Automatic annotation (TrEMBL):
Residues 404-413 have a biased composition (Polar residues). Belongs to the nucleotide pyrophosphatase/phosphodiesterase family. Residues 1-20 form the signal peptide. The chain crosses the membrane at residues 431-452. Its main location: membrane. One of its GO terms (cellular component) is membrane. This is Ectonucleotide pyrophosphatase/phosphodiesterase family member 5. Its cofactor is Zn(2+). It comes from Bos taurus. Keywords: Glycoprotein, Hydrolase, Membrane, Metal-binding, Signal, Transmembrane, Transmembrane helix, Zinc. One of its GO terms (molecular function) is NAD+ diphosphatase activity. InterPro entries: Alkaline_phosphatase_core_sf, Phosphodiest/P_Trfase. It comes from the Eukaryota. The keyword Transmembrane applies.
């Protein structure tokens, strides 16, 4: 009887201590997932049980203000740098840099010129420079050499590779002998179908349901790999989508001679490079052209867009109102859904959900800026953030143990908030560590007491029966 009790208490002690020490030595794990074009309110369009499962056991932010222009490449680069487009340099999906005399085009997949990406340093590189490893499954820019590096593991971009195959890679990298600490996973939908069908189409219902199934698959695979409870998972997107119509088209040919300018980026933010000596003519013609087109000289672009101080931003910017489409003439491609508009419009806003050991449970936050994700990621990864335009303090309430800062009234500049204070991270874990060590120690002491008693009793023949009752509940525990 006593030896049974001894074995059980010894096993419990060993287990508690080993769990505690493995918890301590574990690298942080963060998986960032983007479902392109997943508008914030798609969550409520059809049942999305897997998204709601994350909300219930994690956190949600209802309105995320992304960056202008609300296009795919500019916003994905903001998520991993915390910078506005004018600061990270990916100012559009289609760009021309007059200093480099080079073009960048998502439409032609001509995006591999490193120089376009090197005005910033994305988080996977900073993570690697800090001695950790990263893995990326199709996240925009992760198959481009930036400042001489690729992610430790990455997949060359190929939109034919299934979601399941991308998830398999991510799981493989997180569970390998040298596990990654940062994973990045990208999926093209519901953006593609949103463009084709328009977000108001009832056919978007099944498209959103399919994304929910894909999220369910990811959760299932993370659970199977025993990653679900140890990994911090963030589900977000780059932008929303708005309904367009053949009735809301602005045709530039009606106002401008094609010989007088080059159209670098088309709709809904037309980036216009006038020919030599044609600036005034083009600007005047466009400024009065259409009530649903607002035309800015580059230096007059509103401050709140932070979209001015970069040579890749063209001299004239013509911005369409929500739901209006800019074409040269009706032979150009028309889309029933589009994005790129003013980032103050709710239609342009993405989703933001997170789950994991660092995050609170069943917590909803009203609003955040997408630039705040970067300092949050750096905090979770325990790496020092580079200068950026977000602030960790804006999103710290999403975390389980928001460390109280010096004083809530102290206004610290954003850069200071961004820099990682490892102490905060340690506090989370040291709590678990403390409980583990205490429990382990208590059990070891009990073990020693029982052992001593056993040694004493082995000299005395009679063993009291009640010890059987003690060992029973211990076995069931
Ligand atoms: C820019 O590059 C093009 C070829 O891509 C070339 O024809 C043109 O002369 C270059 N312009 C300048 C100013 O160097
Ligand atoms: C893209 O992925 C598909 C599906 O896995 C594969 O059949 C195809 O060969 C890949 N294309 C390239 C260029 O690697
Ligand atoms: C388009 O312009 C008209 C006239 O100024 C205005 O009434 C309408 O609200 C605008 N549409 C949008 C979507 O802003
Ligand atoms: C649009 O412009 C192109 C080039 O000038 C021309 O070939 C085409 O016929 C035009 N289409 C329409 C619908 O006007
Ligand atoms: C989640 O929080 C809401 C209120 O914020 C509460 O009504 C609900 O019961 C909570 N759900 C769970 C599962 O704790
Ligand atoms: C977003 O950033 C702006 C400018 O820094 C700031 O005024 C605003 O409070 C931020 N919004 C949130 C929800 O943190
Ligand atoms: C954004 O951050 C960059 C890098 O720190 C900085 O140069 C820039 O001035 C910031 N922009 C704003 C509007 O604060
Ligand atoms: C965070 O990083 C520092 C070194 O930069 C390290 O000393 C510390 O142990 C790390 N904390 C955790 C919780 O991993
Ligand atoms: Zn996108």
């Amino acid at each position: 009887m006593t030896s049974k009790l001894l074995r059980v208490s010894f096993m419990l002690a060993a287990l508690t201590l080993s769990v505690t020490f493995s918890l301590q030595s574990d690298q942080p794990k963060v998986l960032l997932v983007s479902f392109d074009g997943f508008r914030w309110d798609y969550l409520y369009r059809v049942p999305t049980p897997h998204f709601h499962y994350i909300m219930k056991y994690g956190v949600q932010v209802q309105q995320v203000t992304n960056i202008f222009i609300t296009k795919t490449y500019p916003n994905h680069y903001t998520l991993v740098t915390g910078l506005f487009a004018e600061n990270h340099g990916i100012v559009a999906n289609d760009m021309y840099d007059p200093i480099l005399n080079k073009s960048f085009s998502l439409d032609d997949m001509d995006i591999y010129d490193s120089e376009f990406w090197e005005e910033a340093t994305p988080i996977w590189i900073t993570n690697q420079r800090a001695g950790h490893t990263s893995g990326a499954a199709m996240w925009p820019g992760t198959d481009v050499k930036i400042h001489g590096s690729f992610p430790t593991h990455y997949m060359p971009y190929n939109d034919s590779v299934s979601f399941e195959d991308r998830v398999a890679k991510i799981i493989e990298w997180f569970t390998s002998k040298e596990p990654i600490s940062l994973g990045l996973l990208y999926w093209e939908e519901p953006d593609d179908m949103g463009h084709q069908l328009g977000p108001d189409s009832p056919l978007m219902g099944p498209v959103i349901s399919d994304i929910d199934h894909k999220l369910g698959y990811l959760i299932q695979m993370l659970k199977k790999a025993k990653l679900w409870n140890v990994l911090n998972l963030i589900i977000t997107s780059d932008h929303g989508m708005t309904q367009c119509s053949q009735e809301r088209i602005i045709e530039l040919d009606q106002y401008l001679d094609r010989e007088h300018y080059t159209l670098i980026d088309q709709s809904p933010v037309a980036a216009i490079l006038p020919r030599e000596g044609k600036f005034d003519e083009v600007y005047e013609a466009l400024a009065q052209a259409h009530p649903n087109l607002t035309v800015y000289k580059k230096e007059e672009v509103p401050e709140r867009w932070h979209y001015k101080h970069n040579s890749r931003i063209q001299p004239i910017l013509a911005v369409a109102d929500d739901g209006w489409h800019i074409l040269r003439n009706k032979s150009d491609d028309f889309l029933l859904g589009n994005h790129g508009y003013d980032n103050a419009l709710a239609e342009m806003h993405p989703i933001f959900l997170a789950h994991g050991p660092a995050f609170r449970k069943n917590f909803t936050k009203a609003a955040m800026n997408s630039t705040d994700l970067y300092p949050l990621l750096c905090h979770l990864l325990n790496i020092t953030a580079l200068p950026h335009n977000g602030s960790l303090s804006n999103v710290q309430d999403l975390l389980i143990s928001p460390t109280p800062r010096a004083s809530p009234n102290t206004q610290t500049p954003p850069l200071l908030h961004g820099s990682v204070k490892p102490r905060e991270n340690e506090q989370d874990e040291s709590y678990a560590y403390f409980i583990g060590v205490s429990l382990g120690s208590v059990i070891v002491i009990v073990f020693l007491i029982v052992l001593i008693k056993h040694l004493i009793r082995s000299q005395i023949p009679a063993l009291p029966d009640f010890q059987a009752e003690i060992s029973q509940p211990l076995l069931q525990a």
